[in-house]
UniProtKB/TrEMBL annotation:
GO MF annotation, one: identical protein binding
Taxonomic source organism: Zhenhengia yiwuensis
Pfam families assigned to the protein according to its UniProt record, in alphabetical order: Response_reg (PF00072), Trans_reg_C (PF00486)
Protein name listed in UniProt: Stage 0 sporulation protein A homolog
Subcellular compartments: Cytoplasm
Length: 235
């Protein structure tokens, strides 16, 4: 892949300058927009690899921008917003955002989130040119055709629900999935108050695939929001 290009959508000049300066120090290419209208035009004309998006723009709510972009593009979107309530995070992620960073934020955390998202972009790129019937992430291997799972070359026996959960996370590796999204995808007719059941199944899944379930390396919990499968570097 060529050097990734990032679109920064932020109306606060000081925050925008902080983000672009950070990107410059890491040799990222970037474009900027300060309104929702500009952001959509930039996304169409420059086709960025990642969008960093503020929700509180002067002409349009960021949630609406996410929804508009999702009608024609799957470009990863990292929300950077002062809105810190779980409901705001869930709404953004359900609308199609890939990650959510709350202001004020550290430069180190922003760069870490970018690295996670870029690994997903690169993984998707490679997956598009390779046979994707087998998923490999560190010591985790899923053979979709056979319906089998291995961890460190040892076959792991999962229940049908555990297997569906693992496959859903694997197919969205690097992306935060909300409780509501997971429930709808795995159980179809599930209700929001079924979240405790989801936590139980996730706990049993972790016991089977994680060496230390209390300190998981594959499945990360976003408290009050959902879960994300992390992309392991040693692959």
């Amino acid at each position: 892949m060529n050097k990734p290009m990032i679109l920064v959508v932020e109306d606060d000049k000081a925050v925008r300058n902080l983000i672009t300066t950070t990107l410059e120090t890491q040799d990222y290419q970037f474009h900027t927009a300060s309104t929702g209208g500009e952001s959509i035009l930039e996304a169409i004309s420059h086709k960025p690899d990642i969008i960093i998006l503020d929700l509180g723009l002067p002409d349009m709510d960021g949630i609406d921008i996410i929804k508009k972009i999702r009608t024609w593009s799957n470009v990863p979107i990292i929300v950077v917003s002062a809105r810190s309530e779980d409901r705001d995070k869930i709404d953004a992620l359900d609308a199609g955002a890939d990650d959510y960073l709350t202001k004020p934020f550290s430069v180190e955390e922003l760069l870490a989130r970018l690295r996670v998202t870029l690994r997903r972009v690169q993984y998707d790129y490679i997956k598009n040119i390779q046979n994707d019937s087998v998923f490999i992430n560190g010591g985790l291997k899923i053979d979709y055709a056979a319906g089998c799972v291995w961890v460190d070359e040892k076959e792991i026996h999962l229940t049908p629900i555990e297997y569906k959960l693992l496959c859903l996370l694997a197919k969205n590796v690097g992306k935060v999935l909300t409780h509501n999204f997971i429930l709808k995808e795995v159980w179809v007719n599930a209700l929001p108050d079924d979240t405790p059941s989801l936590r139980v199944f996730m706990a049993t899944l972790r016991k089977k695939i994680e060496k230390v379930p209390s300190n998981p390396k594959y499945i990360q919990t976003h408290i009050g929001v959902g879960y994300r499968m992390l992309r392991i570097d040693e692959i």
